[in-house]
């Protein structure tokens, strides 16, 4: 399994590359629903994307057929609170 921050990840997914030459961050962003490219980069920087048991660098170019294991964090609950902002309506 992964190390550090990824040990407490809630969910894991397997992603299989269909074509060669694409960067891993782009692959993750377009194959995983709701994951932005910047979020994919954070997962890669934290060692949460593995290939053959080793963390994948964010600049890695995939080969067709490679299977990546991605450790995803538990969704955080965010509380949105209203603010009292004085507004002048013209």
Give an overview of the whole structure.
- The chain is built from 2 helices and 4 strands, in the order βααβββ.
- The chain has 90 residues and is α+β, with helices and mostly antiparallel strands.
- A 4-stranded antiparallel beta sheet has the order 1-4-2-3, with no helix packed on it.
- Strand 2 (49-51) and strand 3 (54-55) form a beta hairpin.
Low-confidence runs? none
What class do helices, strands and sheet pairing give?
alpha+beta
Rg calc: 17 Å
Portion of residues within helices? 10-25%
Number of strands: 4
Calculate the mean pLDDT score and round it. Answer: 85
Which series of helices and strands comes N to C? Answer: EHHEEE
Number of helices: 2
Main sheet: strand order: 1-4-2-3
**Shape, principal axes of CA atoms:** elongated
Largest beta-sheet characterization: 4 strands, antiparallel
Topology:
Blueprint lengths: L10 E6 L7 H8 L5 H9 L3 E3 L2 E2 L11 E6 L18
Antiparallel strand pairs: 1-4, 2-3, 2-4
């Amino acid at each position: 399994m992964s190390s550090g921050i990824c040990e407490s990840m809630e969910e894991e997914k397997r992603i299989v590359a269909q074509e060669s030459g694409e960067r891993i961050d782009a692959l993750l962003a377009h194959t995983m629903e709701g994951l932005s490219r910047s979020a994919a980069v954070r997962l890669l920087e934290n060692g949460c994307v593995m290939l053959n048991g080793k963390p994948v660098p964010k600049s890695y170019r995939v080969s067709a057929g490679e299977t990546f294991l991605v450790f995803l964090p538990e969704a955080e609950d965010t509380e949105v609170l209203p603010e009292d902002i004085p507004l002048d309506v013209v």
